[in-house]
Amino acid sequence: MKGKEKFRSYFQKRINTINLLKKKATHSFTPSDYHSLRIEIKKLNAILEFINFYKSDFKKKHFIKNYKNIFKTAGKIREFQLEEDFIKKSKSKNLLKDYSRRLKELKQKEKIVFQKEIKGKFTGEIKKSHKQVLKVLNKATEEDAVNYLRVRKNKIETLFGGKKVKQKKVHELRKKLKEFFYNTKMLGGKESHKNEVKMDNFQELLGKWHDKIVIIKHLKETVKSDKIGEKELQQLIKLKWNLVSGREMLFRKITKIIESKVLRQ
């Protein structure tokens, strides 16, 4: 499969997978399904970044806006699921029954919103824009793909550079790496198996770090509110500081890997 046929096939596969998930969402959606839906939308977004690279007047926002709300809602559900899993694995799970109940209620509210979005406007409008994207992908060339991967790889290299690693920089690096490797699969970029494994492991580490940040953020919001009893509140504060400690430990590992330049070897 060459050039535009390969690009179109990859794009169509994303759409087909999303359509299957949409059908499933009307009756039974598992925690991994919410995660899968978000990944597929991220892959679509990466494709649009590639299109914007060789066709600067392409209106990416016009297309991706149809996915924005469903992506955000699925993300909220995913975050509550992560926090629920964290609570269940903690030693304090039996001391946080009210909070666990509250998490379940919050998650259920978002699921109701998700059901409305997946059945409504989201379903009708995206079909129109898919044809437009396929039409633009027809104009993509192998040379566009090579140039895109070269430029994006150089951008990532600059993010690995510098003496002091900051959290904001790591957030940007995490997003750029995802976009790059999603599009590498579509565009056929050549990465050694050894380097691919290194990058997969590094991205997994980044993911764990980001999960802790998400949970810490929600715990901070909860601690500031008056909706939790004093005993459970104290348990949540302890959990929050444990997470902060874990987050900092992971960040030190990430910093060490970036500064060692091992991913560029």
Quick structural overview:
Helix content is 83%, strand content 0%. It is mainly alpha-helical and 265 residues long. The radius of gyration is 21 Å and the shape is flat.
Keywords:
mainly alpha; CHAD domain; 265 residues; 83% helix; 0% strand; flat; 9 helices
Description:
83% of the residues lie in helices and 0% in strands. The protein is an all-alpha fold and 265 residues long. The protein has one domain (3-264): CHAD domain, CATH 1.40.20. The longest helix has 32 residues, at 193-224. The chain is flat and about 60 Å long.
CATH class: Mainly Alpha
Q: Briefly note the CATH topology name.
A: CHAD domain
Helix content: over 70%
Give the helices and strands as they follow along the chain.
HHHHHHHHH
- Which CATH-level-2 architecture? Alpha solenoid
Distance between the termini: 30 Å
Unreliable residue stretches: none
Number of domains: 1
Strand content: under 5%
Averaged pLDDT = 85
Radius of gyration from the alpha-carbon trace, in angstroms: 21 Å
Helix count from the secondary structure assignment: 9
Write out the CATH superfamily name: CHAD domain
Query: How would a crystallographer describe the biggest sheet?
Result: none
The global form is flat
Oligomer: single chain
- SSE-based structural type: mainly alpha
Count every beta strand, where a strand is a DSSP E run of 2 or more residues: 0
